[in-house]
TrEMBL record:
Protein name in the entry: G protein-activated inward rectifier potassium channel 1
Family: Belongs to the inward rectifier-type potassium channel (TC 1.A.2.1) family. KCNJ3 subfamily.
Transmembrane segments: 45-66, 120-143
Domain of life (superkingdom): Eukaryota
Source species of the chain: Burhinus bistriatus
Keywords (A to Z) from UniProt: Ion channel, Ion transport, Membrane, Potassium, Potassium transport, Transmembrane, Transmembrane helix, Transport, Voltage-gated channel
Record-marked site positions (Role in the control of polyamine-mediated channel gating and in the blocking by intracellular magnesium): 134
Gene3D superfamilies in UniProt: 1.10.287.70, G protein-activated inward rectifier potassium channel 1
GO molecular function: G-protein activated inward rectifier potassium channel activity
Enzymatic reactions: K(+)(in) = K(+)(out)
Keyword Zinc-finger listed: no
Membrane topology: Multi-pass membrane protein
Start and end residues of each Inward rectifier potassium channel C-terminal domain: 155-320
Length: 321
């Protein structure tokens, strides 16, 4: 069948776009720092370059303007004349003086004199403005580089979920794994069933969210994710999948969103990985192949079998039936 529109892609991206914000779009400017961090890298780099370029040109123009109004440009080569900034003859020299001051290079050829109060005021303003721009933009770039989004790419989910019996109970299962040796501290997993439904009052809910219990009451949702784990949701009378059978699975339309959260051990930042399973990616009567084996002094994980399943005898009826 043709693949339908997902609410959450397999890579975790949410297919939701906000439109017709009207006056609410001003909220993005009120939280400008977060807005810049959320932008894509190409826009971040463009804003970074444009901000510094414009600031440098404006400040260099102000130094050139002081020299022009005082007449320093015409008498700069006169040894008896005391200019505002020594050895500033034109705009390029004013620009170089600004860069030397901003970067604290201090070559010594160009320097401000004590007979220029307006230059001293501009120097103080330049120092304050430069500190603010550096703190804002460099802080934004640092936060963006340290975001744990890339860490989520080394957290794996099985391509399909399976339905089979475990301990005599019908269960929905999927597999999660961590490709890195560094651990996910306080890892926790949650599942949401997204399905349209109509209430007894006639209200239609297009994307109604129901919680799938994956061990919240027993603590099984708290994971020690050092090796691939099979997450299990028991289908019982309290489960939203109580009426799901092998036959009804072919006609159902739903999406199971899986959310894995934890703290990155190396950075201490919270990381979240997401994926989803549609009804076409739920295999009835299947079980995951084992991936763990004991070798000489350690356990080995074979990730080539991470997504592999095999058929097992499973009743085709729902738990309700």
């Amino acid at each position: 069948r043709r693949e339908r529109q997902r609410f959450v892609d397999k890579n975790g991206r949410c297919n939701v776009q906000h439109g017709n914000l009207g006056g609410e779009s001003s909220r993005y400017l009120s939280d400008l720092f977060t807005t810049l961090v959320d932008l894509k890298w190409r826009w971040n780099l463009l804003i970074f370059l444009l901000t510094y370029t414009v600031a440098w040109l404006v400040m260099a123009s102000m130094w050139w303007g002081i020299a022009y109004l005082r007449g320093d440009l015409h008498q700069a080569h006169d040894d008896a004349y005391s200019p505002c900034v020594a050895n500033v003859y034109n705009f390029p020299s004013a620009f170089l003086f600004f860069i030397e001051t901003e970067a604290t290079i201090g070559y010594g050829h160009r320097y401000i004199t004590e007979r220029c109060p307006e230059g001293i005021v501009l120097f103080l303003f330049q120092s304050l403005l430069g500190s603010i721009v550096d703190a804002f933009l460099i802080g934004c770039m640092f936060i963006k580089m340290s975001q744990p989004k890339k860490r989520a790419e080394t957290l794996m989910f099985s391509r399909a979920a399976v339905v089979s019996q475990r301990d005599g109970k019908l269960c929905l299962m999927f597999r999660v794994g961590n490709l890195r040796n560094s651990h996910m501290v306080s890892a926790q997993i949650r599942c949401k069933l997204i399905k349209s439904r109509q209430t007894p009052e006639g209200e239609f809910l297009p994307l109604d969210q129901c919680e799938l219990d994956v061990g919240f009451g027993t603590g099984a949702d708290q994971l020690f994710l050092v090796s691939p784990l099979t997450i299990c949701h028991e289908i019982n009378s309290k489960s939203p999948l109580f009426c799901l059978s092998q036959r009804s699975l072919r006609s159902e339309q739903f999406e199971i969103v899986v959310i894995l959260e934890g703290i990155v051990e190396t950075t201490g930042m919270t990381c979240q990985a997401r994926t989803s399973y549609t009804e076409e990616e739920v295999l009835w009567g299947h079980r995951f192949l084992p991936v763990m084996s004991l070798e000489d002094g350690f356990f080995r994980v074979d990730y080539s079998q991470f997504h592999a399943t095999f058929e097992v005898p499973t009743p085709p009826y729902s738990v309700k039936e």
